[in-house]
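Hi X.,

You mentioned you wanted examples for the new student's onboarding notes, showing what a folding record looks like when two proteins sit in one file. Here is a clean example. The first protein comes first, with its sequence line followed by its structure tokens.
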Amino acid sequence: MRKALLVMALVLFGIYSFAFVDVPEDHWAYEYVMDLANRGILPMEDNFNPDVVLTKAEVAELLSDTLTYIENDPVLAKAEDIKRVETVMGLLNKKLDDALSVKSDVSKLKGETSRKLLETKYMVLDLGDRVTSLENALSKNTDDVSVNTENIDGLWEELETLQSDLDYVSGENVKAHEELKALIAKKADVEKVKELSEELNKVSTKLETITKVAYRAFNNADMVVEDMLDLSDSVDSLNTKVSTIEGNVNANTEKINAVEEKANSANTMAMVGIGAAVLAAVLAFVF
């Protein structure tokens, strides 16, 4: 912004009779600064402070002094100089707008940061509550572990008692097996008789089954014989019918032959009549 104001002073030329302490002749902006100072636009002070950033109020003051100078000395102010001043003012306005936009962005960023910090605070509080809840649960689990340990000790005692009972029962079981073996040895013959009886029952059952099958076979054979006799009667009946039909066919054949003979005789007579008629016609034509 400061450089833009100094560039604006390029349109002005003058003789320097004053110098700032902090703007030596080898400074890059010496001519521009002294030109504005000699024209009364910059205040005549010991220090110019070339590296200090201008405020909006200071920029407005410099622009106002520049316009006042141009209005009071229109001979020095050319059209191109006024155009340059307007260009510089446009650039200054754009810079000011950019600064305001940056300020707005900073405000938004500040608000967003505050919101994030607040969310983080709530998250930390929530985590604290969760940690407290976990600590309470851990304490409860510790108590449960103690109770379970006592229960396990009691179960071990019961298990030892059950093991003793199991050993006793195992011994009694061995005795019972020995007694059972003795009883089985005594009942061996009875078991053999029982097995033979069961085999005999099985054979009887098979014999009964075979008898039933044979009986059904005989019945089926009788039925087949009866069917064959019925079939033989049917064949004889059919033979009789065939003989009758053959007799009828022979009789019809004889009748057909008689009719054919009569037809042949009639045909012969017709031919004779036709011949006689033709002969009579010929004779009548000749005579």
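Then the second protein repeats the pattern, sequence line and then tokens:
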Amino acid sequence: MVSKKKYIYTIDDDCFVAKDPTGKDINALQQHIHNLLSPSTPFFFNTLYDPYREGADFVRGYPFSMREGVPTAISHGLWLNIPDYDAPTQLVKPRERNTRYVDAVMTIPKGTIFPMCGMNLGFDRELIGPAMYFGLMGDGQPIGRYDDMWAGWCAKVICDHLSLGVKTGLPYIWHSKASNPFVNLKKEYKGIYWQEEIIPFFQKVAFSKESTTVQKCYIELSKMVKEKLSPVDPYFQKLADAMVTWIEAWEELNSPAKSAPVANADPKKK
């Protein structure tokens, strides 16, 4: 919230530089910036994935009117070694490791919600920053480990409304260790049930024509959360209020700087 940098990169403290199949270190930050600087194609899927990568292009049948794409707001990277699994999957597959390096970047289509992970994430703060609130979660709250998911669901529906793109795929980082699945289960178990209500909610989100900025979308979304999700649990009423507080704080910290008053010139000439 307080950073004034255009591009923000988030990475967990147990994540490190990964290597590509040739053994070369992966420059994750460089790839994220490349993803964010090239357009996205959320309205029509290109079967060669990202058409703006070197060696790729739009396939036959892709409408020429859509080939300019839209600005990319989010670059969602992936992980080698320890996958980002929920607690039940961790318990079922405790030894599973991700060794598959898929050399691909693709745009997540409009209308498709996805599970955003903050372990290896880049985003354009100027385009989508106000939506990157990682939820009211953690100590004292009934749910955890859904903070980045919440931000991703909110950001994706806003990107869809404002014609912004979200990419996933490269770059990879090396996720070095798995968190405790029993601890994770305590944090996640309500979310595992609640998401069966949350996902359909986000799939039905429709913003008004008046929501022309990320902030306006987020405030409108907070009202929908309070109305539609509060019956699931009173927690969502608190979360909706926190979403409003987040935007108020964002606007206070990111308001245009007021011009400093010009100092009066010394009337005495020396």
